[in-house]
Amino acid sequence: MDNTTHLIHQWKATPYEEEVAHQLQKSLKINPIFCQLLAQRGIQSYEQAKDFFRPQLDQLHDPFLMFGMERAVSRILLALARKEKILLFGDYDVDGTTAVALLYTYLEKHHAILTYYIPDRYKEGYGVSFEGIEHAVQQGVTLLITLDCGISSQAPLRMAKREGIDVIVCDHHLPSEELPDAFAILDPKQTHCSYPYKELSGCGVAFKLAQAINQVTNQPPDWCWELLDFLVISIASDIVDMMGENRILAYYGLKRFQQTERVGLKMLIEKSGKPLPFTINDIVFGLAPFLNAAGRLADATQAVRLLLAKDAKTATEIAEILNRRNLMRKEFDQRIAEEAKILWQAEENWHSKKSIVLYQPHWHKGVVGIVAARMVEHFHRPTIILTESNGKAVGSARSIQGFSIHEAIKSCEDLLINFGGHDHAAGLSLHPQNIPYFQDRFEAIVQITLPNTIADPTIYYSAVVPFQAITPTFWHILQQFAPFGPGNRNPVFVSHQIYDTGYSRLLKEQHIRLIVKQDDTPSMMGIAFGMAQYFESIQSRQKHSICYTLESNQWKDKTYLQMQIKDIKIT
């Protein structure tokens, strides 16, 4: 997208308790900037800081604290003893497919009569489908385990019960008031579930189930730890909270991922073109689109087949299929995003509206979520992109930071066929004739409930940092804050009175390669994507302020520190 409507961001300091930061500095004796970052993350003591910097697997919660776990494990162990056929029913996104791969990999150590099923996004839609239950009946399945779905699939699960199939729901989405009639439900977001950590991914819930079975059957703990390479892909891709249990799992998952022996994962890493080691961001942008392309354009079963591949030939064949789908997906989402942008700016009074709801029946269902995310990034408004599928309007919603799009959609549920999701992302369907009423109602709700304080695009920065503070020691400690994600974002820093050395360059007429100084400090390098409009002012040696994150970059076998510029203000 171009810069014709470049957003002007406010910069706001992330609040923290100064006294907490002061006490942490006294006990930790590290740069006060890091104590400020810890305080911003709710860390108040030396012990909490130690746990944060040195996450341990023994800090994970007992899986039996999750409501329904004892009942679920007992039923699975009974199925193993009786040699029943078990079917794993997963969602078609990365979280669902990794959850299937994780639990399948674990259970096949115990049980050979095991199969899996991923619904077709276009024919069956989201959640447990009637077609999936019919397939289970035909296959002689007597135990079905849902993964990353099922909490809102009341009617299909009633059908499963009538057919004599017991269902264990493993989900992490917000339940509605009516829970499905299942043999057991594992979802930490159930109101009566006292599990201490509520932000697990769908694959994370599957992992806790595997962990519980492992405990009861007295198997080596490594049977679970070796699954963490699957789990970290899910945690990264589903953009879940990166504090507490998720941070521990992601920390060890990344370690396991770098050393993985799985043929499918090795092929994924090779196709990404990114050398190891991987960060969370590398998974989000390098692997997740590749895996997601399976279900966006066709059958997501291919993603599971790749994750479970046992030989290089199979992995290579599947990876080639997914690569072609991913290239098609890129073409679709770029074209549709441009169409959506033009359509939106053609609407009357679009500047004064606080939400975006667009519908075009020809848009590809598999990329509406990506397009919604692009619109949020470009226009900073909660966005819903709808298309036509089987006579219904179906779509995806994405939100801005601090606004629950799930709650806003819930306020319109009388106009919907169904909906589900999180605060930041959701899916929904409705009859096409209801779209105008939904657009008006949704906009009215957003107008009332979206605070003006977050209606304007805002960059929250962690600290003002002089260049002279950015030493190798500073970088070494900063890396220990990783892995980064929601709740533990890569710290954004601000530096003032910055000026060009004369060596900054414009790249492809869109981006700036910065080489800048502050006072008499050594020069710093940075990359400012899509900020060509500032180049003339920077070249003229005007002083400016920059907002950035720090990252290491590799070029021709050399690794160096660079700034990833978020915004520039000419002073």
Oligomer: single chain
What is the CATH topology assignment of the largest domain?
inorganic pyrophosphatase (n-terminal core)
What is the annotated CATH architecture of the largest domain?
Answer: Alpha-Beta Complex
Strand content: 15-25%
Question: Would you write up a description of this structure?
Answer:
- The model is unreliable at 1-5 (pLDDT under 50).
- The strands form 4 sheets. The chain has a 5-stranded parallel sheet with strand order 3-2-4-5-6, with helices on both faces. Strands 7-8-9-11-10 form a 5-stranded mixed sheet, sandwiched between helices.
- The longest helix has 34 residues, at 312-345.
- 42% of the residues lie in helices and 19% in strands.
- It is built from 21 helices and 19 strands.
- The chain has 3 domains: 10-14 and 459-570, OB fold (Dihydrolipoamide Acetyltransferase, E2P), CATH 2.40.50; 59-322, inorganic pyrophosphatase (n-terminal core); 347-455, Diaminopimelate Epimerase, Chain A, domain 1.
- It starts with 9 loop residues before the first strand and ends with a strand.
- It has helices spanning 18-28, 32-40, 46-53, 69-82, 94-107, 130-138, 154-162, 202-216, 222-225, 228-237, 244-258, 263-272, 280-297, 301-308, 312-345, 368-379, 405-410, 435-449, 452-455, 472-479, 535-539, and strands at 10-13, 86-90, 114-117, 143-147, 166-170, 184-186, 356-359, 383-389, 392-398, 418-421, 425-430, 458-461, 463-464, 493-500, 505-507, 511-518, 524-528, 544-555, 558-570.
- It has 571 residues and is of the alpha/beta class.
- The radius of gyration is 25 Å and the shape is globular.
